[in-house]
Amino acid sequence: MDGFESAYLKLDRASALNESVQKATSDWSDSLDLTMSAATEPSTKGEGFDVVVRLHGIKPVPASLSIELDECLHHIRSSLDHAVWQLVKDHGGALDRQAFPIFEKSPPPKQMAVYIAGLPDKTVEVIKAIQPYNGPKGPKASKLWWVHKLDIAAKHQSVVPLASGVSQVHIRIPDDDIGGKKIYLPQFAATDSDSATLVRVRGVRQDYVPLPPEEWTGYGEERRLVLFFPALDAPKIPPPLKELTDWIYYVRRTIARLEQER
To answer: By three-state DSSP, how is residue 16 classified?
Structure first.
């Protein structure tokens, strides 16, 4: 099979998986019945007591969602390698360890040469121009960086998304004893636990009783969670799962650019 044909087939498969992931994400969010609570508990740091505010009702994401996400990321990443191999064959090169390179920092010339051996000069220029280390907002803002790193992660364990709120939804506890606290969503929470700690106010009396949630300002506002990719070692806010659609489109355009050099 021609390498570009298989690359596009992989992206078609990634698109189908992405549709399933996005539907599962929406269904998961719609199924949540989120509530909040506040309680006085022994401090997690030394002596004393804290007021702890938690969000309840978070459900684990379906296992099938993570598996489909793993497969989707693999097809996106490997489609680039299929295109590179085909270009090496088209130009009479000997196939060895060539692959589409994705680097966070500019690599030594000898390291890059392993990946691009046998490729035409124009193809090499295209590949180098879109490397994460050449990105105007830094390497970790690059779509290629995320696809590459998440694909590596998925080889060792399934990609389990994080949950967060949307919009500017916030809740305020109008309580003078704790200074009145604002609880903002989004705040990231694991999707393998029923609850997440949102706020911890330290140094309260042991007999302190927080106001019940129904007396909090803004408690009646709609609270909705969406799914984000794991943070890895990237920016504080990782991309939401919905960006997977943009990543597939970007890689498809990249392969189309490479195909022009056949």
So the answer is: helix
Which of 78-92, 155-169, 208-222 is predicted least confidently?
155-169
Q: List phi, psi (to 5°) of 200.
A: -130, 115
Rounded to whole angstroms, the Cα distance separating 252 from 171 reads 42
Question: Tens digit of pLDDT for each residue in 110-128?
Answer: 999 999 999 999 999 999 9
pLDDT at 79 over 80: yes
Cβ neighbours around 63 below 10 Å, total: 10
Number of H helices, E strands in the chain: 6, 8
Q: Are 211 and 204 in contact (CB under 8 A)?
A: no
- Using the predicted structure, report yes or no on whether residue 4 has a pLDDT greater than 60: yes
Q: How far is CA 98 from CA 61, 108, 190, 235, in A?
A: 37, 16, 38, 30
Nearest to 232 by CA among 167, 109, 137, 139: 139
Q: Which of these ranges, 43-47, 87-91, 104-108, has the smallest mean pLDDT?
A: 43-47
DSSP 233: T
The answer to whether 30 touches 227, Cβ cutoff 8 Å, is no
Q: CA-CA distances (angstroms) from residue 149 to 103, 137, 233? A: 10, 17, 10
Every domain of the chain and the residues it spans: 3-259
Q: Can you say whether residue 107 is alpha, beta or left, with left for phi > 0 and alpha for psi between -120 and 50 degrees?
A: beta
Instruction: Encode 102-168 in three state secondary structure.
Output: CCCCCCCHHHHHHHHCCCCHHHHHHHHHCCHHHCCCCHHHCHHHHHHHHHHHHCCCCCCCEEEECCC
